[in-house]
Automatic annotation (TrEMBL):
The keyword Oxidoreductase applies. InterPro entries: NAD(P)-bd_dom_sf (IPR036291), SDR_fam (IPR002347). SUPFAM superfamilies: NAD(P)-binding Rossmann-fold domains (SSF51735). Belongs to the short-chain dehydrogenases/reductases (SDR) family. This is NADP-dependent 3-hydroxy acid dehydrogenase YdfG. Keywords: Oxidoreductase.
């Protein structure tokens, strides 16, 4: 396991599912972890699990759309745990299913705002301090629709594609100062989000492919993304900063191929080479 001794991590959406596993892996590797989510009970449960495993965690309830509240909780992390070395934006919302004319506009926009604006809020607070210290890593989770069309999940897909581009922009802005940003796709993981897709009438009507994938045995353990992100935090995949890494990746193979991927400009949100030359 990667060593994160004497570091501080912040994980959003840390109350359950993928976020809980990310936080536990960060703590198991030696990091002190700030746990952010809207539901206090859930992040308190995550903190208790980490404490029982010998780690240190600070649960901080927050609505990531509230800029002032985000500034406040991240200031508390810095005071109570120390300067932040790793930021993982794992939070996500996906509640608007179907063609855009059938989606409730407020629900559709809420998905975009939570996913994208929440990520912006945390990064804009954490990145400047990382730059002052000349080091830091930021991991933003993406997902379905990042690099392909997702017609009946357009709000979620639009936000995740935007987060991918935002991650590239952020990395290009900060990498010369020693701060690297990464995008991670955890794969199809059975979480409360996918349970809503599977069990709600709207999800069953418009996203039947999700059930089909689970029926075919595609169910990525959340530990895959958590272990990958621990390695990212420890610097193992620094040559892939600004690019997409996946929970389904074989990490040893990815490490062997990462310099070639970077040289080929792979794992990035790009037009094809021919189209790029026409612009």
């Amino acid at each position: 396991m990667a060593s994160l001794e004497s570091t501080v991590a912040v994980v959003t959406g840390a109350g359950r599912g993928i976020g809980r596993e990310i936080a536990r892996h960060q703590a198991a590797a030696g990091a002190k972890v700030g746990l952010l989510a809207r539901t206090a009970r859930e992040i308190e449960e995550t903190a208790a699990l980490i404490a029982a495993e010998g780690g240190t965690a600070l649960p901080l309830p927050v609505d990531l759309v509230d800029r002032v509240a985000v500034e406040g909780v991240l200031a508390r992390v810095a005071v109570e745990l120390g300067p932040i070395d790793t930021l993982v934006n794992n939070h996500g919302s996906f509640r608007a299913f179907g063609p855009i004319w059938d989606c409730d506009p407020e629900t559709w926009w809420s998905d975009v705002e939570i996913n994208l604006r929440g990520t912006f809020h945390t990064c804009r607070v954490v990145a400047p301090d990382m730059l002052k210290r000349g080091r830091g890593r930021i991991v933003n989770l993406v997902g379905g629709g990042t690099g392909n069309s997702f017609p009946h999940g357009s709000g979620y897909a639009s936000s995740k594609a935007a987060i991918m581009r935002f991650t590239e922009c952020l990395n290009d802005t900060t990498i010369d100062g020693g701060v690297r940003a990464f995008a991670v796709d955890p794969g199809l993981v059975r979480t409360s989000m996918t349970e809503l897709q599977l069990n709600s009438p709207e999800g069953q009507a418009w996203l039947p492919g999700i059930q089909q994938l689970f029926d075919e045995g595609i169910n990525v353990p959340p530990t895959r993304a958590a272990a990958l992100i621990a390695d990212i935090a420890a610097g193992r995949f620094d040559p892939l900063a600004g690019r997409l890494l996946r929970g389904v990746d074989d990490r040893d193979q990815l490490e062997a191929e990462m310099h070639a991927l970077a040289a080929e400009d792979g794992r990035a949100l790009r037009f094809t080479g021919v189209e790029q030359r026409k612009l």
